[in-house]
C-alpha cells in the first residue's frame, strides 16, 4: 500500500461507517437552526397553547428571528443531543453501508452498477437505519417543536428523560411512532440523495469537468440536495407532524396526510419546499464534503500506520 493515493485504495467498512456518522454530526451542528425552523413551519397550524397562539412563523429566516426574539438563541438548538445521537446511529448505517450493500446486490462485480441497483441499495440502507434510529428521531422532532415560553409547560427537560417519559406514557410504540412514514421518507431521501450524488459525481469525473476534490463534491452534493427535496418534502411534512402529535390526534400516518391535504390549501403546501431545501441543500453540502475529506484523511492515516509496521 505504500506509495498509493487514498483514492487508489477502497476504504474499509469501519472507515466508511465512522466517517459517515462524524460527517453527519458536523452537518447537523452547522445546519441545526435551519432544521428547527423547518420543523416549526411544518407543524404550524397544529394545536397550540394560549401563550403561543399569537406567534406566527413566516419563512425560514423569519422563523429563526421569531424564535430568537421570543425564546432566545438556545431554542434554535433544541433537540441537538438527540439529533447527534440520531446521526451517529442513522447516517452511519444509511451512508456508511451504502457501498457494501450496493456491492452485495451486484454480486461483488467491480463494474459500474445500474441505477436500479443503486436505488435498491439506497432504499435498503435507508430502511435499515430508520429501524434502528427511530427513537432518536422522535425525541429530536419533539424537542424542536417544544416552545421555551413562560406560561408554556415543557414536555421534556432532557434527551434521556424524554426517552423514559415517552416509553412510560406511550410504550415502545411511542418510541417507534411514525416508523412507516419515516421509512418511506428515508428510503426516498437515501436513494435520491446517494444515487444522485453518485451519478453527478461520476458524470463530472467521466467528462473530466472537475477532479475528484472539493469543488466536485460541492456541486454533486448541491444537486443531490435539490433532487432530494423535490422527491421527499411532502413525506417529510407528514413524518414530522405525525411524530410530534400527542396520542389520539391522528389514527395513522395516512390519516395525518389526509387531514393535511383536506385542511391545508395547496398554496401553503408549496411553502414547505423552501425551508426543506435550505436545510437539505446545506446539510448535503456540509455532510458530503466532510464525508469525502474525513474518509480520505482516515485512509491516509491508515496507510501511514501500515507503512510504519
Description:
- By secondary structure, the chain is an all-alpha fold.
- The chain has helices spanning 13-43, 60-71, 80-94, 98-105, 115-145, 159-175, 179-206, 214-244, 253-263, 266-270, 273-307.
- It is 72% helix and 0% strand.
- Helix 5 packs across helix 7 (179-206) and helix 8 packs across helix 9.
- The longest helix is centred in the last third of the chain and has 35 residues, at 273-307.
Protein traits:
0% strand, mainly alpha, 309 residues
Please outline what is shown here.
The protein has 309 residues and is an all-alpha fold. It contains 11 helices and no strands.
Summarize model confidence as the mean pLDDT: 84
* Helix percentage: over 70%
Using the CA coordinates, give the radius of gyration.
Answer: 20 Å
The total count of helices amounts to 11
Residue runs with pLDDT of under 50 for 5 or more positions? none
Distance, first to last CA:
12 Å
Secondary structure class reads: mainly alpha
Give the helices and strands as they follow along the chain: HHHHHHHHHHH
Count of individual beta strands: 0
Sheet-strand content, in percent, reads under 5%
- The coarse silhouette is globular
Main beta-sheet annotation: none
Task: Lay out the secondary structure.
Layout: H1 13-43, H2 60-71, H3 80-94, H4 98-105, H5 115-145, H6 159-175, H7 179-206, H8 214-244, H9 253-263, H10 266-270, H11 273-307
Amino acid at each position: 500500500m505504500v506509495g498509493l493515493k487514498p483514492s487508489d485504495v477502497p476504504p474499509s467498512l469501519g472507515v466508511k461507517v465512522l466517517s459517515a456518522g462524524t460527517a453527519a454530526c458536523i452537518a447537523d451542528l452547522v445546519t441545526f437552526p435551519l432544521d428547527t425552523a423547518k420543523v416549526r413551519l411544518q407543524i404550524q397550524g397544529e394545536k397550540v397553547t394560549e401563550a403561543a397562539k399569537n406567534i406566527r412563523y413566516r419563512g425560514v429566516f423569519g422563523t429563526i428571528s421569531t424564535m430568537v426574539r421570543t425564546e432566545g438563541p438556545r431554542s434554535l438548538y433544541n433537540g441537538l443531543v438527540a439529533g447527534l445521537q440520531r446521526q451517529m446511529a442513522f447516517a452511519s448505517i444509511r451512508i456508511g453501508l451504502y457501498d457494501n450493500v450496493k456491492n452485495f446486490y451486484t454480486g461483488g462485480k467491480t463494474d459500474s452498477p445500474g441505477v436500479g441497483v443503486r436505488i435498491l441499495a439506497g432504499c435498503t440502507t435507508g430502511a435499515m437505519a430508520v429501524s434502528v434510529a427511530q427513537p432518536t428521531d422522535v425525541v429530536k422532532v419533539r424537542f424542536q417543536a417544544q416552545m421555551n415560553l413562560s406560561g408554556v409547560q415543557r414536555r421534556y427537560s432532557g434527551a434521556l428523560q424524554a426517552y423514559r417519559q415517552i416509553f412510560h406514557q406511550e410504550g415502545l410504540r411511542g418510541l417507534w411512532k411514525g416508523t412507516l412514514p419515516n421509512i418511506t421518507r428515508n428510503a426516498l431521501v437515501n436513494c435520491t440523495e446517494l444515487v444522485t450524488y453518485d451519478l453527478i459525481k461520476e458524470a463530472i469525473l467521466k467528462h473530466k469537468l472537475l477532479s475528484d476534490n472539493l469543488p466536485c463534491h460541492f456541486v454533486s452534493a448541491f444537486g443531490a440536495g435539490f433532487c432530494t427535496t423535490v422527491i421527499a418534502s411532502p413525506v417529510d411534512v407528514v413524518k414530522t407532524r405525525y411524530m410530534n402529535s400527542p396520542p389520539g390526534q391522528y389514527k395513522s400516518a395516512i390519516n395525518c396526510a389526509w387531514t393535511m391535504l383536506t385542511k391545508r390549501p395547496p398554496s401553503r403546501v408549496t411553502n414547505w419546499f423552501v425551508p426543506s431545501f435550505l436545510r437539505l441543500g446545506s446539510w448535503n453540502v456540509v455532510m458530503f464534503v466532510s464525508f469525502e475529506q474525513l474518509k480520505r484523511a482516515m485512509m491516509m492515516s491508515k496507510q501511514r500506520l501500515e507503512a510504519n509496521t
